[in-house]
Amino acid sequence: MLHHHGQATRSAVHSDPIFFEPLIALAGQPNMGKSTLFNLLTGLNQHVGNWPGKTVEKRDGVFTLNGKQVCLVDLPGTYSLTANSPEEVIAREFILLSRPVVTVAVVSAANLERSLYLVAELAALQTPMVVALNMLDVADQEGIQVNADALEAELGVPVIPIIASKAVGVRKLLDVVDEMIQGRMDVNPKAPTIREDHYAVLQKLKVLISDHVPAGYPVDWIALKILEGDAEITADLRSNMPSDAWHSVNNILLQHDDAFMAVASARYEWIVRIIKKVVSSPNYGQIGLTERIDRWATHPFYGLIVLMLILGLVFWVVFTISAPIQQWLDGVLITAISEWSSGILASAPVWVRGILIDGFIGGVGSVITFLPVLVIFFMAFALLEDIGYMARAAYVMDNFMHLMGLHGKSFLPLFLGFGCNVPAVIGTRVIDSWSSRLLTIILAPLVPCTARMAVVAFIAPAFFGRNAFWVTWGIVLLSLLILVLMGALLNRTVFKGQRSSFIMEMPLYHVPNRRTISLLVWQRTLSFIRKAGTSILVISLIVWLLSYLPGGDLNGSYLAWIGNIFEPVGRWMGFDWRLTVALLSSFAAKENVIATLGVLFGGSADSGLTAALTAAYSPATALAFLVTAVLFIPCAGTVAAMRQETGSWRWVFVSVTMMLFISLIFGFLAYHIAGLIGL
């Protein structure tokens, strides 16, 4: 890091065109409200990608400060600046090498003791810093009071009380930042000193390494890092030093192998001393709002009931709000567009009318009709994440995760799967154990994503009316039950019953931020619309061409030929070749199920796709199709993510094969059981 990694980071950072002066860094631990502040300042003027050479998300944006554009970089959330993760290395290298003119450290007034550990490390870097004391409202509801003036005196840097979710105090924060940019305010962070019994050791190290530390890295900080056992700093410093010089350094480190305790304990003593001076906590025995709610939300039994009720409420809201909008889009808007297009293209060749009306409007138009479903799903899960419930969901699912040899931490990426399986697979990077991570990757596609749920939300109301909610909830619970059973089976057979421990931070509950949620919903919705305008459009046109060629007759087309090959398997579940083809097209993208049906039933555009489907199939067939579609093999994007994260096609094959057999078996059971009960 000291030479090769550092120079690479410097080059990559400054070659990115969005980074310009003045450059401000936003630092903080997870759940401090850092993203809320970033979204408030940058709005839609932000860019999301990966750090050069890393898989860690990079967010940067632009905002105007007193008439001048400022570049704001949202550093990855980190608990410290020790090289325990790529996020921590990125954060410290950015501050050291890109030298932001100001680093805004976001801390939580409701959890100041934990927040100050990162501030202690930032202070050691001697970077120009201002502390944004956030979540005052959350602290107040917990009975916690923080004296900002006293904290400022202790830290030696400006401390500005804010409530980022309500934009309270942000203007004052920006004024202080502007003062620092203009050079009208000098700050001298008061970093914690090492314990006295190791102070002399630190001074010896500084003398030995001073001539071997590259430009940009403070000698004091490097000496402190190698004393506390930072593996990456130590390895890089060793490569930069002559062997005899390193031998002297190494002898000191070996003689003081307990020095990391001296460094850490000095920080904690510094934090405790500050907390005693600036924080007023509730009286002993007083119960805060978070604790009262968690008596139910994290209870081993009632917590599961709460989780199921929340999921059920989400699905109920989706159907209640989105169903009328969806029906209007499908039966009125898309139909009107199709009829208008038919009139305009009346004299055009048959293939032109077919490609535009049946291929484009019938395919992409049908997908757009369940946009309301996706928006509500995005909004619901963004809300759950923002108020702090996601960690509780992981906690109450811990016992179920243990049945599979996993722990509650695995539930977080799995929970992401309700949005999309691709980030769920990538999100397994938070899992420390490789076996646990691998098992989570294999199981992640069993979580019904919003694209699959949108297919259910499109078809279920047409066939099951008011019972659509119960059908949907049942299919989701079936998917999760299969996930647990398959996880337990794989753990006992393939992974030999391995288990791992689980430690998770529970953020305090807080009022959701409308701006943060709105921005997240907008970004995800925009991503879906782009997808509909690219990959789904291409698949729709390919499906139409295959349904038209070679002679313009659907039943004699190449698509019918492909469908007839697989139709014998589809018949087990009551499918004809059209449903079979729609299912196969979902490999490219799950939304293609509706797009393909829209193309195949293009001739019924005057009555709407849902009406055409209910006329063609029985409720038993529809139920079997929904069960099979939800459990069917993962989409191409998920397969690619699985190959990337596992580094092998072997485990991808295991997951895909497992899901193929599960979908066929349960589709078969659903069709025949539904037939027996008279659906």
Secondary structure: elements and pairs:
Elements: H1 4-15, E1 23-28, H2 34-42, E2 46-50, E3 57-65, E4 68-74, H3 86-98, E5 102-108, H4 112-124, E6 129-134, H5 136-141, E7 145-146, H6 148-155, E8 159-161, H7 170-181, H8 196-209, H9 219-227, H10 231-240, H11 243-255, H12 259-278, E9 279-280, H13 289-297, H14 302-344, H15 350-368, H16 371-387, H17 390-396, H18 398-403, H19 411-416, H20 421-426, H21 434-443, H22 450-464, H23 468-493, H24 514-533, H25 535-548, H26 558-571, H27 577-585, H28 592-600, H29 609-616, H30 619-631, H31 636-646, H32 649-676
Parallel strand pairs: 1-4, 1-5, 5-6, 6-8
Antiparallel strand pairs: 2-3, 3-4, 7-9
Helix pairs in contact: 1-3, 4-12, 8-9, 8-11, 14-15, 14-16, 14-23, 15-25, 15-28, 16-22, 16-24, 22-23, 22-29, 22-30, 23-30, 24-25, 25-28, 26-27, 27-28, 30-32, 31-32
Biggest sheet descriptor: 7 strands, mixed
Q: What's the mean pLDDT score?
A: 80
Which residue ranges are poorly predicted, with pLDDT under 50 across at least 5 consecutive positions?
3-18
- Distance between the amino and carboxyl termini: 65 Å
Number of helices: 32
Describe the strand arrangement of the main beta sheet, using strand numbers: 2-3-4-1-5-6-8
Structural class: alpha/beta
Overall 3D form: elongated
Provide the helix percentage.
55-70%
Q: Using only CA atoms, what is the Rg?
A: 29 Å
Number of strands: 9
* Binned strand content: 5-15%
